[in-house]
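Loading example: each entry is read as two labelled lines plus one structure line.
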Amino acid sequence: QVQLQESGPGLVKPSETLSLTCSVSGYSISRGYYWGWIRQTPGMGLEWIGSIYYSGSTYYNPSLKSRVTLSVDTSKNLFSLNLTSVTASDTAVYFCARVVVGAQRTFDYWGQGALVTVSS
Amino acid sequence: DIQMTQSPSSLSASVGDRVTITCRASQTINNYLNWYQQKPGKAPKLLIYSASNLQSGVPSRFSGSGSGTDFSLTISSLQPEDAATYYCQESDITPWTFGQGTRVEVK
């Protein structure tokens, strides 16, 4: 059973960097699949942030690309999100997910979500 | 970006009712259309992928149809546990985008 778990600070100050980690169990990241981040806010709804392959290849949402960096650590079976220069509009629940590509393009397994609040 | 528009934004129906939610894309998306169910405080759960394929473990009362720009999710016989918000999502062109959601209330 594939399981994902987000972790990281729940409170980040404006202009600082939001950092989250997604630990994966039940599946080795290095076996394949892309791994992604999605966030949810009451105002914007669900928004795809970006996806990363175990090799490090990445795709980013152009709306966030200048501030986002995804990375992967296959030795620890986890991947991470860094979002710089955050503002209150980055307050959201952040989900990590496994990304299926090819004939079936979906987010098939999700973490439970991590609420991150941007506030001084 | 492709805009996904769902209707209605909310609905209320009785147990056993047939419920249909529609999703319209701002351009043709080659059937790369997925449906998710989200309950309060939980992550979205994949129900349907590629417009009409039922994800493993999802009850058969859920079905999806459509092509091009117009798609729908149908619950053939609404159950109490189906109370949730439902989202469509296109995965044809990045950035993948979601609809705004349809909240389903079970009377």
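The two ends of chain A are 39 Å apart (CA to CA).
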